[in-house]
Amino acid sequence: MLVHFPTPYPDELLYSLFARYHKNAGTLSPKQTIKELFGTITNRAVVDLQGNIGTLTQRLKTSKISSQEVIENHTLYPIYRPFIPPDRSNDIIKSMIQNNGGSIHTRTGISASNIKPFNYLRYCPSCCEDDFDKYGETYWHRIHQVPGVLVCPIHSVPIRNSSALIKHANQHEFIIANKITCSNNAERILPLELIKPLFELAKILQWILNNNLRPRSLNFYRTHYIERLKERGLATYSNRIRKKEWYSSFQGRFNAEFLEMIQSEVNIKEDCDWLTMIMQKHRRSFHPVRHALIMLYFSEPAECFFDRPIKHLPFGEGPWRCLNKICTEYNQNVIKNESITYCNETKRPVGTFCCNYCGFIYSRRGPDRQSSDSFKIGRVKEFGFLFDQKLRELTGEGNSLRYIASKLAVDPMTVKRRALMLDLNFSWEGEKKEEALKKECYSFSSVEEQDNLSSYKNKHRTVWTELQLEFADYSKTQLRSLRPDTFIWLYRNDENWLKDNSPKKVRKAPSNKRVDWELRDKEILHQAQYLIKNWDKSNQKPTRRTITSIARLLNKTTMLSTYEDKLPLTMSYLHKEVETLEDFQIKRVQWVIKELKKNNEEVREWKVYRKAGLRKSVAKRVQNAISEAVYIYELDEKEHL
Ligand SMILES: [Zn+2]
Ligand SMILES: [Zn+2]
């Protein structure tokens, strides 16, 4: 029986637990460790899809972790499962629990895909640092081993190869993650154009890995994809892919270098190209990276591909708005029935919407691609009884054309045409009736998009502008390190503005001038103060303030470690602001409690320990802080009863 098996860290790879067990046991040879874990030396420990998990969990009698939990939280299986049909998935789970797992890879379809696995175990340097802050050690994270995840989905930095060869790990070697195996400094620096899509792709894969998704038939996703291609005019309504347009749109979205990095180059001339095949009825499964890439192409959150009803509704689910401004139900979703016809030339759907409150009928060519489309009028088919009645009244009263137009919320020409059609008497000058009727063009002003995009835009633009006023001689990179959230938002949503409103690159002339340390000290101090003032503003979780972490964010790691004595103001300020491990643990505890309350969960001591990743043996001061906080919470609760 295994007594000292380590407690798993979040997202820890099963192999990592084996390696930690092996290290803690100290004197065992790898073979002996295998025997301890599985009861026999014929077993193997593997990095991605482990076999015989059932034997292992039975031997872990003290900790009650089930085989299902191990598979779900500590192996790479969940990333493959949603793309495997249900019956095959059950077989695979059975063999991960019962057999030694020899044929698992073949049955997942991984072996048949062209995505090559990594040769080394991988790590993110920032996660590593966080682990040391939080736990005093690091471990192999599952997400970093997923093929296609090249950038950390938390830190957005490139994931690196460790020195641990997977080939060795799979052959009876237990290699732990530590400062020696994870100390690769030779990684290339990626340009932002590559980081951005790699980060987004990693986010999708992380979501798939962590959301307990069920297996699906091989053609499940294809149906999703084709409906979306239709919306974009890249497939016909009879499900035929417009291949040339599809490839050119895909290649316009992702550049060749990016596709090569994730082993998913495309080639339109190749009949069996994956980008063609994944849209056809097929009998084979595709690697999760390829699916994630298609999902990324459509720029929708991953969950949309697993939940959204498949039926294609070009104008959404309804009811739809009345867009006649003088209607009592204006801008309300009161139209219950829409009729859809298809345009003969373009084959695009045309929706016709009729309001029962005012008789107004309008149509619009679909599909609606964004929420603002639901405010659009394509053609006015009927003005409706309300409009005509108001027009008669206003004309009869002898009002001016402009006045009537403003009352009816249309342009003057539309008023005139309608009046002609109704044979009304009026004194305005104007077009002949025949000509006016021929044009058949009416303008109803449409509503602005009621979206908060513009308010975000204003907010981030202001932050970015003010930042430049405050730090006038800073480069774009330095500004970015001060407010990464604002930078990323603008980069994604307002790229051109950002380009035009950032400091231009200045080529520094080499100078022999002596450094004015006093001035530099003041500058860095100023920068550091700003950073501390906004600490954790753009992070979900609190992070620890250490000299290293501050220096990294200021982009001044070398300067602060080499010229410490020349920067007295900065250094004394920083020493005042850094947090001890205990300070940080307490900050984390407070954050955990806030989160629990926010989610309406009970605040209990054991929960706080677990969520804050703390052991019972943590410093007395932290223990006290926890008891105190929980005590206060309980008092509050009693008061509310
Ligand atoms: Zn990371
Ligand atoms: Zn209406």
Description of the structure:
The protein is mostly helical and 641 residues long. It folds into 5 domains: 14-184, no CATH class; 196-307, no CATH class; 320-439, no CATH class; 453-507 and 515-579, no CATH class; 582-640. The chain is built from 31 helices and 8 strands. It has helices at 14-25, 30-38, 53-59, 67-74, 77-80, 86-98, 104-108, 125-135, 166-169, 192-210, 220-231, 243-253, 256-261, 274-277, 288-297, 304-307, 385-396, 401-408, 412-421, 433-439, 453-470, 476-482, 484-493, 495-500, 517-533, 547-554, 557-562, 568-577, 581-598, 605-611, 620-640, and strands at 120-123, 160-165, 320-321, 333-335, 338-342, 349-354, 361-365, 379-382. The strands form 3 sheets. The chain has a 4-stranded antiparallel beta sheet with strand order 5-6-7-8, with no helix packed on it. It has a two-stranded antiparallel sheet with strand order 1-2. A two-stranded antiparallel sheet has the order 3-4. A hairpin with a 6-residue loop joins strand 6 (349-354) and strand 7 (361-365). Helix 10 packs across helix 15, helix 21 crosses helix 23 and helix 22 packs across helix 23 (484-493). It is globular and about 105 Å long. One zinc ion binds next to loops. Residues 201-574 form the Transposon Tn7 transposition protein TnsD C-terminal domain. Pfam families: TniQ (PF06527), TnsD (PF15978). Residues 5-157 form the TniQ domain. InterPro entries: TniQ, TnsD_C.
